[in-house]
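Sequence in, structure out. Go.
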Amino acid sequence: MKIAILNDYLRRSPVSADWSKLAATCDITVFDKAIPPHEAANTLAPFDIICTLRERMPITRELIAQLPNLKMIAITGLYNRTLDVAAATERGIVVSYTELRGSYRKATCELTWGLILSVARHIPFEANQMRLGGWQNTAGFTLHGRTLGLLGLGRQGRYMVPVAKAFGMDVIAWSQNLSADNAAQHGVRRVEKDELFKNSDVLSVHLVLGERTRGMVGARELALMKSSAILVNAARGPIIDEAALIAALRERRIAGAGLDVFAQEPLPDNSELRTLPNAVLTPHQGHNVQEFFVVAYTDVVENITAFLSGRPIRLLTADRNASAVQAL
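Output:
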């Protein structure tokens, strides 16, 4: 059996789980660079098993149809929005998932607060200036007494609330399906969408990417924000109209942005975002912690081993995949 481990940029898979038993009978290849879409079919055609890392590479119906040897797809995580599970099932391809457990569940929330503080207090800029011999170039602002706006109050959005309260922030939220009662249960006040953008000092995105949310934060919404406000996104890049955000940052119509996700990933070297002094950028680090890799790849090894023994476990169906996405 030939196993492909995709998009493992940090080559964490070999050191996060024990692959030795699989390696004794299988040919394992780790891809530490993104495979261009036009090369995916030819590159992956020889493999029997594909292991994805989150949603870094779409596995579409068209791609699946061009992979004659494919027998199993082992995803990392409970769901995968960029995988056509139905197409895999129709082909008789087994799809497995990994469990959500341990401290890494809050990793994205923790990074989001890191981005908020970095933008509010100009931490990356001042740290770099210290290396150059500088001293006190900017004045930031405190979070206490300000308003955190949550665009989405799913699992990650709810994780933000107690931290915001600890900082002494007021918390408001909006999403298309959020009710006032549900928001109140989590200590949050529901507002209408325009009010969220107008009143937030810090606006943090916590939506699932879908047809309803793609481009939801556009020029109109950015124009509603205070000139002193900051926008943070560690959810999915395409939720924000990147061109509109670049214009707002360049023209200082908002104070700054902290971004961990982008419309195209990896972010192109020539992206204007890289040149904006009021943008703090991280390379999709939200889940990128040691705890995640250990849990994910340990489960992947177990899943592949069970599949090869004829007793597959943690099976992901199209319905289960859709339900997991809707539950976010």
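Check: The chain has two domains: 2-102+290-326, 104-281. The longest helix spans residues 290-308.
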